[in-house]
């Protein structure tokens, strides 16, 4: 089944806000249909017919939308509204409206909204899914590297929730701004048997665990006598990004060689393509997401075209490919 972009319902009594958010989201390929409503009654009537993946609500509709219970709700807080009360009532997350309306603050607000809506659209962390069986000793000296961008929040979750806890350690780079990766790691954690956390400098790569690159920091793989660990560094953008998938993959090619499995998922541009090629040249097993299930077939396409991908596959098959290669 092809990957399905996110459907969003924006419910707010500010026509300006609805227009600004609609314009920002429609430019992001991770989002599909965007519908808007100015009142609670209008939004409630749209819920059943439209079936949004996430509701973005504020103003008059506000917290009332949380009570509908059919979709996760991200609340847009007005000045004076209590964030703790909003979350206590069941909102998936909240974003505070900027105090001023200059172009920079509006852009930052829209970016924060887009990230939090993507995270809210992910499967509930309380839902367990059937895992692919793997021997407890599978790939004892191996490591798994995953890189993703646009559409990758859901794509990575789809893989993580199906992997058994007996697998070697995993390191992930997802293009995401600083301040959001900890929240994303928390959402990934508990989806399945893999424990996920935001990486800190010097963290060891452990079996059954995944480390997520912090936003705004490059993540490199290192190795010593005790195994693999990660190094987090500030630096210039590489291929337009920090963290960069290419930085992680290049470091894996140097220190992990044939012990590594590299996975490049949906994303715009070409970050990670050359790094995946270097991994393959060093003996790693490399996987690229296919066109049909990618929200944006950019990064995996760039990798495929330069011969970096050994196995191109639909998203739903990638977890299985990882496990099978480790047996």
Beta strand %: 15-25%
Percent of residues in helices comes to: 25-40%
Overall mean confidence score, pLDDT: 88
Rg from Cα? 20 Å
Shape: elongated
Number of strand elements: 14
Query: What about the largest sheet?
Result: 7 strands, parallel
Counted by DSSP, the helix tally is: 10
Low-confidence stretches: 125-129
Q: From N to C, what is the helix and strand string? A: EHEHEEHEHEHEHEEEEHEHEHEH
From the N-terminal CA to the C-terminal CA, the straight-line distance is 26 Å
* Largest sheet: spatial strand order: 8-9-7-6-12-13-14
Strand-pairing-aware structural class: alpha/beta
Describe the structure in brief.
The chain has 327 residues and is an alpha/beta fold. It is built from 10 helices and 14 strands.
Descriptive report:
The protein has ten helices and 14 strands. Helix 5 (152-160) packs across helix 10 (315-326). Helix content is 31%, strand content 22%. It has 327 residues and is α/β, with parallel strands linked by helices.
Features:
327 residues, 31% helix, 10 helices, elongated, five-stranded parallel β-sheet, alpha/beta, seven-stranded parallel β-sheet, single chain
């Amino acid at each position: 089944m092809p990957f399905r972009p996110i459907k969003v319902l924006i419910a707010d009594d500010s026509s300006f806000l609805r227009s600004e958010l609609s314009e920002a989201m429609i430019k992001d390929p991770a989002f599909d249909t965007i519908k808007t409503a100015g009142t609670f009654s209008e939004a409630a009537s749209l819920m059943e017919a439209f079936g949004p993946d996430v509701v973005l609500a504020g103003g008059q509709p506000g917290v009332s939308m949380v009570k509908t219970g059919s979709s996760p709700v991200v609340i847009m807080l007005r000045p004076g509204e209590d964030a703790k009360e909003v979350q206590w009532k069941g909102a998936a997350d909240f974003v505070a409206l900027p105090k001023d309306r200059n172009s920079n603050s509006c852009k930052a607000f829209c970016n924060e909204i887009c990230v939090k809506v993507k995270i809210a659209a992910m499967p509930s962390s309380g839902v367990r899914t059937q895992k692919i069986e793997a021997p407890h000793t599978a790939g004892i000296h191996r490591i798994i590297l995953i890189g993703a961008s646009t559409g990758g929040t859901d794509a990575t979750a789809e893989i993580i929730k199906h992997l058994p806890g007996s697998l070697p350690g995993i390191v992930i780079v997802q293009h995401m701004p600083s301040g959001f990766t900890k929240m994303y790691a928390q959402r990934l954690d508990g989806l399945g048997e893999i424990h996920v956390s935001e990486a800190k400098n010097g963290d060891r790569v452990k079996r059954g665990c995944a480390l997520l690159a912090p936003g705004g920091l490059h993540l490199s793989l290192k190795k010593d006598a005790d195994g693999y660990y990660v190094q987090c560094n500030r630096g210039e953008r590489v291929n337009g990004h920090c963290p960069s998938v290419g930085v992680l993959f290049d470091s894996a090619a140097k220190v992990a060689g044939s012990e590594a499995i590299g996975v490049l998922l949906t994303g715009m541009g070409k970050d990670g393509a050359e790094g995946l090629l270097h991994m393959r040249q060093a003996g790693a097993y490399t996987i690229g997401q296919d066109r049909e299930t990618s929200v944006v077939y950019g990064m995996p396409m760039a990798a495929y075209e330069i011969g970096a991908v050994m196995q191109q596959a639909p998203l739903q098959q990638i977890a299985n490919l990882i496990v099978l290669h480790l047996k």
